[in-house]
Structure to design on (300 residues):
């Protein structure tokens, strides 16, 4: 009897770690499942503004992306008002207020009430995040081309240098000499090509505008998600280039066709609107404006 009790006791004792291990695994699984169900149960993020809706659709973004942006927006909205002002936005991003940050906020503030709702944040932040180097340079050029004449004169150039110097004077205050160095065609003005050369020689002058793009990417989807978004856009761009050249879509394997048809949400490539994405480019907008101006002149 004693031996039997000892054997049972031994069996019970040796089973305890296995039971504990199984319980821990079940507990961990329960936590994972709870998180999954919680994620699925989260309310749908709905957009109202047509530009916000169009921009998210053009980039192939879904509810997962909108929830990420909603969480980021709510983190910036420290007073819980449902809107964010310039102070909240640039404090969250660690940016000193400047002419560049003020202009960026004004561009995002589509209704001009000095506050950003979620739709405004999504619509313009996503556009700015997609800007190329030349788009950002055009944004800065237009900012300092105060009379919209298509060039920056000496007064505008001086104001630009003061605005971006943040108390650390550029070019030792000798703005006229600096202007002459960049004015390669000697017309006393800086056009966009000369402005681009200025940035190549002194990239720190306009660095805040490029830094803001990095921070907006961080405070919208995050770096990892933006990499995926860009990879997806490049995927569709390559398909378009092939189709335009060959007159038909590129060949695909059976697995690729199955994935795109049935597993697109998890493993496929969400469709994007390449034309709309291109239309948001500052450079493309400038080209269209110039073409329209030339058309009107020709018609006149």
């Amino acid at each position: 009897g004693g031996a039997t009790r000892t054997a049972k006791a031994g069996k019970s004792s040796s089973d305890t770690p296995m039971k504990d291990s199984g319980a821990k695994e079940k507990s961990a699984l329960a936590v994972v499942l709870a998180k999954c169900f919680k994620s699925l149960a989260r309310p749908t993020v709905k957009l109202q503004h047509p530009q916000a809706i169009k921009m998210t659709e053009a980039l192939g973004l879904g509810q997962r992306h909108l929830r990420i942006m909603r969480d980021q927006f709510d983190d910036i909205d420290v007073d819980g008002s449902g809107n964010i002002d310039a102070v909240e936005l640039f404090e969250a991003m660690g940016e000193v207020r400047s002419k560049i940050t003020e202009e960026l906020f004004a561009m995002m503030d589509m209704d001009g009430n000095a506050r950003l709702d979620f739709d405004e944040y999504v619509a313009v932040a996503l556009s700015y995040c997609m800007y190329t180097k030349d788009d950002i340079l055009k944004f800065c050029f237009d900012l300092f081309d105060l009379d919209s004449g298509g060039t920056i004169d000496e007064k505008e150039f001086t104001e630009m240098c003061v605005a971006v110097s943040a108390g650390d004077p550029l070019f030792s205050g000798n703005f006229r000499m600096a202007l002459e160095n960049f004015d390669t065609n000697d017309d006393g003005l800086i056009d966009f090509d000369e402005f681009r050369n200025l940035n190549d020689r002194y990239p720190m002058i306009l660095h805040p505008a490029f830094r803001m793009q990095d921070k907006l990417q961080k405070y919208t989807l995050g770096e990892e998600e933006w990499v995926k978004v860009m990879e997806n856009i490049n995927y569709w761009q390559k398909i378009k280039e092939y189709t335009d050249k060959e007159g038909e879509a590129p060949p695909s394997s059976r697995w690729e066709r199955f994935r795109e048809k049935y597993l697109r949400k998890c493993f496929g490539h969400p469709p994007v609107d390449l034309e709309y994405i291109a239309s948001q480019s500052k450079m493309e907008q400038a080209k269209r404006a110039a073409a329209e101006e030339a058309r009107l002149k020709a018609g006149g």
